Amino acid sequence: MRRLLPMLLCLLAILAGPAAAQTLRIGLQEDPDTLDGAKNWSFVGRVVMTSICDKLIDIAPDGSIVPMLATSWETAADGKAITFKLRPGVRFHDGEPFDAAAVKFSLDRALTLPDSRRKSEISAITKVDAIDPLTVRVEMATPFSPLLAQFADRAGIMVSPKAAQALGDQFGNKPVCAGPYRFVERVPQDRIVLERFPDYWDKDHTFIQKVVFMPMPDATVRFANLRAGQLDMIERIAPTDLDSLRNSPKLASASITGLGYQGITFNVANGARADNPFGKDKRVRAALDLAIDRTVLNEVANNGAFKVGNQPQPPGSFYYNQELPVPGRDVERAKALLKEAGVTNPTLTLLVPNADADRQAAEIIQSMAKEVGIDVKIELTEFITMLQRAREGTFDADYVGWSGRIDPDANIHTLLGCKVPGNDGHYCNPEVDRLLQEARLTSDRAARKRAYDGVMRVLLDERPIIYLWHQTWIWGLNADLKGYVPYPDGLIRLRDVKYSNGRM
User: Fold this and answer.
1) Is residue 200 a contact partner of residue 89, using CB atoms and an 8 Å limit?
2) Other CB atoms within 10 Å distance of the CB of residue 367
3) In this model, does residue 306 exceed pLDDT 80?
4) 43: closest CA among 383, 313, 495, 410?
5) N or C: at which end does the chain have fewer Cβ atoms within 10 angstroms?
């Protein structure tokens, strides 16, 4: 027995080691809001849901649309319907089958929930028909060119009808979908735990057994935890930490240019807080814009790693309006605009997420604004609270990013369309809505670009959002973690990700 005891202890250690090592710990910049795809609004929520909830379709690393739960699709000649063929043999995490009825339920739910944030994205849908168990037709009253791209994001998330009906408003606290990992538990501000779903349709490409998402707003803290081995992956690494990351033999990095932007969104009509010089007068907003030196801001805050911009699309995009380039800083013109508006030393309270990188960038903007006579008061706020306040209208402006979508409609209409749920500042311009609708009704790229060019002429005159830069998504990884592929939407996909040292 004395000889056997050490052998048993050794065997237990061997067995316990790999089991513990199968856990992948991912550091997030914020704690997500709801994990209900119909209601979610935060980027980190999309990151977590990517592992839980498969969509009808997805995007490839090059931004093209590829099959997921739908294996193929066909658009009607008149552009008023899309027919999807569904993947057979798929099950939700509760064992219920994924079929055409589930697609109809998921889309109808996203269209009808009172607090759904997907309504504006798929509002063109007039009817969803389950033709047979593996065929679904989505009908529209008029052609709507961005619809297919919407199904590659939250609007395309498929949920278990049985679980959604049983859980009701609590579904976001325990989502049941058809993705590679199923939900286990959530401790707010601490962790979200998922485990590998053994009956996943693509399980042969899923190797990690457990995933733990951990919110850590401070980029320096996230990086320190990665270096110490307490995390295996972190998103949005601070550009200032890139050299340290790349020089460490124990760490690796992955990066890709994103689809979205970072900006300042103004409250122009959402309640009493809109009654301030910035909400009421586009000249005051323009003065703040002209006070900002985007190149210096990017160099200091981002180590020059991002791409400065002044539109929802980056300058390299087909839909970028080349006739409206990124403006340079013009202090004298900014002062003249304030004088023209009859405003002296206006004050703007700016909600800023309590992440270190966001605070630093906001302080640089604050300093630049001061030189033209604008007093920017920074109010650091927990991210979910900031989103809630923006939705309620209890803000002057917020420093907030948009992770971006492959179709420009979702980068503009979703945030600035009249009476759209995601339009926190309640900006509304009938001409912008008309041009956005014009772009929706055609699939001709040149015609769509002409419409978006017109949209940008209005938006860059009225400035409901000041666009600052386009983010490069940068991930830090344990060097033993192999197979990770970056995507331009910034979401973490764990297909084929595994440890090279046998950790699974």
Assistant:
1) no
2) 11
3) yes
4) 383
5) N
Q: What average pLDDT is seen over the chain? A: 93
Q: What residue ranges do the domains of the chain occupy?
A: 20-32+179-257+473-499, 54-168, 261-470
Give the type of residue at 122: I
Burial of 490 (0-12, 13-18, 19+ CB in 10 A): buried
pLDDT number for residue 502: 57
Sorting pLDDT into bands at 50, 70 and 90, what band is 7? very low
pLDDT band at 85 (very low <50, low <70, confident <90, very high): very high
What CATH code would you report for 54-168?
A: 3.90.76.10
Instruction: Tell me which H or E stretch contains 27.
Output: strand 23-28
Cα distances (Å, whole numbers) of residue 359 to 105, 217, 321:
42, 11, 30
Under 8 Å between Cβ of 337 and 282 = no
Pick the CATH number of 20-32+179-257+473-499 from 3.40.920.10, 3.40.50.620, 3.40.190.10, 3.30.230.10: 3.40.190.10
Residues 6+ apart with CB under 8 A from 376: 288, 347, 348, 350, 362, 365, 366, 369, 370
Q: Which CATH architecture has domain 261-470?
A: Roll (3.10)
For range 265-272, the mean pLDDT = 98
Say whether pLDDT at 99 is over 50.
Answer: yes
What is the DSSP annotation of 158-209? Answer: ---HHHHHHHGGGGGGS---SSSEEEEEEETTTEEEEEE-TT-TTGGG---S
Residue 2: CB atoms within 10 Å: 5
Identify the DSSP state of 97. Answer: B
